[in-house]
Design goal:
3 domains; single chain; 4-stranded antiparallel β-sheet; alpha+beta
Length: about 500
C-alpha cells in the first residue's frame, strides 16, 4: 500500500508508519494497520511529551497544540483535527469534521475530488493543500513565496500526511530538533528508523513514569547516529552487500516558529566503508579499543532519565569527528592513530590526554593503511613505501640505539631539517653497514614518499612524516625498544606542547 518517494522526510515518515502499522515492509501495510498507527499518533500528540514535541519542534500552531482546545467544551475540535490530519485514508465524510473545526481556511485546503491536483511526493490524488502546521519546513498558510504555480501550500495525499505525522518518532529527537537519516540503501535507512523508534518509545514510557513532558536533551546526536550505524553493520553484516557501502545524509531540523533551521550532515560512502571495514577482521581489535577510549559522559544516563529535564551527555569524539572527513583527514589521523593531536581541546576533553606513549598499544599501521586507502585515496605503492621505510628506520634506531635520531624525528621541524637529519642517518648507517649492503633509504622510495622532484617537497610531506612516525612507533613498541626510549621522548613532548605543524 505504501512505497518510498525518494524525498527524505516523507520516506522516514513512511518507514515509521510501516513499523507503527506492524508491517515488515511499506508495501505490506494494510488499511487496518494505518488505522492502528493513526490511533497511536492521536494519543501521542494529544498529551504530555508528544504535545510538547508538536508545539515546540515539528507542528507549531496545529490543532494538537491549540490551547483553546484544552477546554472541555472544545475537546471535540481536537478530535476533529486528529481525524482531519490522521484519518484521511478512511475516506471519511469531511463535512462534519470541517463544521467542527469551524474555519473556512480548512475547507479551502481540501483537494479531494479536485482534478489535476496530484500529491507533490507520490503523484497520487491529493487530499489537502498543507502548510507548515502539517508539514515541517515549508511556508505558513497563505504565503505563496517559492510555492509552485503561485499556490500557497503543498498538495499531499492522505497517507503522506499521516506519514509526516509519524516522521518525528523515526528520528533522533535532540536539542529541540529532529535528526532524520536518509540513505541510498533502503534497508539501512529502515534499520535507522527502527532504532530511533525503539529509543523514542522507551523515552515516552520513561516520561510517563517520571512525569516529564519533554524528550531528553540528547546533545550528542552525531554520536548517536554513528553508534547506531556501527551496531547495524556488526549485527547485519551477513545480510548486507560486502562490495559496496551506502552514503548517508542526516537532516537536523526544527520547525519551531521563531527558530526554524536545518543543518545537513553528510557521510560519504568512503567514510562508511572505512567504518564498516575497521569494525571487522584484522582491524576490529584496534578500532574498537580506539572507539572505546573516545567515549566521555558528563552525567549518568540512568540518573538523568529520572529527572524532570533529562540531559544525556554521552559522547564519542571519534564518531563525531568522522563527519569532518575527508577535509580534516590529517587531524583525524594524527589525533586518533598517532594519539598526538594538533590542537588543544576544551577542559575535560579526553583528547587532551592522548599520548603516543600512554596509548602506544593503539598505534596500528594496518588500521592507518586502511584509513589512507578508504579516506585519502593514497596509492598502495606509496603506502607500502612508507611502511617499508618506517620499518627500516625503526630497525636502524634500535640496532644502533640511536635515541638522538628518534628524538629529532619525534620533535619535528622544517622539511629541510628533516631531510638533512635523514641524510646524516643514511651516512652513519653506510659507515657501519657491511660492504655492498643495501642503503638505509633508497632514492626512489624517498622521492616517492616526500618529493615532487629533487629538493622540492610534496605539499603533503607533513602527512607522510606523521605516517612514518606511526610506523616507527609501532615497530619499536612491538620490539620493546620504545619503552626504553620513552622518557627522553616524553621530555621533548612536554617542552614542545605549544608546537603545531
Amino acid at each position: 500500500m505504501l512505497r518510498l518517494t525518494g524525498f527524505p522526510l516523507p520516506d522516514v515518515g513512511i518507514l515509521t508508519l510501516t513499523l507503527l502499522a506492524g508491517a515488515a515492509q511499506p508495501d505490506q501495510v494494510t488499511r487496518e494497520g494505518l488505522d492502528r498507527a493513526a490511533d497511536y499518533l492521536q494519543s501521542f500528540y494529544s498529551q504530555g511529551i508528544g504535545k510538547s514535541l508538536a508545539a515546540g519542534v515539528v507542528f507549531p500552531n496545529s490543532g494538537f497544540v491549540q490551547a483553546a482546545f484544552d477546554k472541555p467544551e472544545f475537546q471535540y475540535k481536537r478530535l476533529a483535527w486528529a481525524d482531519f490530519v490522521l484519518r484521511g485514508h478512511q475516506n471519511l465524510d469531511l463535512e462534519p469534521i470541517l463544521q467542527s473545526l469551524g474555519k473556512d481556511e480548512y475547507r479551502e485546503m481540501v483537494l479531494r475530488g479536485v482534478e489535476d491536483s496530484p500529491c507533490a511526493f507520490t503523484g497520487q490524488p491529493a487530499y489537502l493543500r498543507v502548510s507548515r502546521d502539517m508539514l515541517p519546513m515549508i511556508n505558513g498558510r497563505g504565503i505563496m513565496n517559492f510555492s509552485p504555480m503561485g499556490d500557497a501550500g503543498l498538495p499531499v495525499s492522505d497517507v503522506i500526511l499521516l506519514a509526516i505525522h509519524a516522521l518525528p518518532l523515526g528520528c533522533v529527537i535532540t536539542q529541540g530538533a529532529l535528526l532524520a537519516v536518509e540513505s541510498d540503501d533502503p534497508a539501512l535507512m529502515f534499520d535507522f528508523v527502527k532504532a530511533n523508534l525503539d529509543q523514542n518509545r522507551r523515552f515516552i514510557s520513561l516520561a510517563s513514569q517520571n512525569d516529564y513532558d519533554k524528550f531528553p536533551n540528547l546533545s550528542s546526536y552525531k554520536t548517536r547516529l554513528m553508534d547506531v550505524l556501527v551496531k547495524l553493520f556488526i549485527e547485519g553484516e551477513n545480510r548486507r552487500e560486502s562490495h559496496r557501502a551506502p552514503s548517508l545524509n542526516a537532516y537536523h531540523f526544527s520547525n519551531n516558529g521563531t527558530s526554524a533551521r536545518v543543518a545537513i550532515y553528510a557521510l560519504p560512502s568512503s567514510t562508511i566503508m572505512f567504518v564498516r571495514d575497521a569494525s571487522k577482521d584484522e582491524y576490529a581489535t584496534s578500532w574498537r579499543e580506539i572507539v572505546r577510549r573516545g567515549w566521555t559522559q558528563e552525567k549518568d544516563e540512568a540518573d538523568e532519565l529520572r529527572q524532570k529535564a533529562p540531559k544525556l551527555t554521552k559522547r564519542n569524539f571519534i564518531y563525531e569527528d568522522l563527519f569532518d572527513l575527508p577535509e580534516k583527514a590529517r587531524n583525524f589521523l594524527r589525533t586518533y592513530f598517532f594519539r598526538r593531536p594538533l590542537e588543544k581541546f576544551r577542559k575535560g576533553d579526553p583528547r587532551n590526554g592522548y599520548s603516543p606513549f600512554t596509548d602506544t598499544d593503539l598505534i596500528s599501521w594496518n588500521l592507518t593503511a586502511l584509513f589512507l586507502k578508504r579516506i585519502m585515496n593514497m596509492e598502495k605503492s606509496r603506502i607500502d613505501s612508507i611502511s617499508n621505510l618506517g620499518a627500516q628506520l625503526a630497525a636502524y634506531i634500535e640496532h644502533q640505539d640511536n635515541r638522538r635520531f628518534l628524538q629529532i624525528l619525534f620533535k619535528g621541524g622544517s622539511y629541510a631539517s628533516f631531510r638533512t637529519n635523514l641524510l646524516r642517518a643514511i651516512r652513519d648507517y653506510a659507515q657501519l653497514a657491511p660492504p655492498n649492503s643495501e642503503p638505509l633509504v633508497t632514492l626512489e622510495s624517498y622521492v616517492k614518499i616526500f618529493e615532487e622532484g629533487d629538493g622540492f617537497e610534496k605539499t603533503d610531506w607533513r602527512l607522510a612524516y606523521d605516517l612514518l612516525l606511526i610506523r616507527i612507533f609501532e615497530v619499536l613498541h612491538q620490539s620493546g625498544y620504545l619503552s626504553k626510549a620513552a622518557p627522553d621522548l616524553q621530555a621533548d613532548e612536554e617542552t614542545d606542547e605549544a608546537r603545531t605543524d
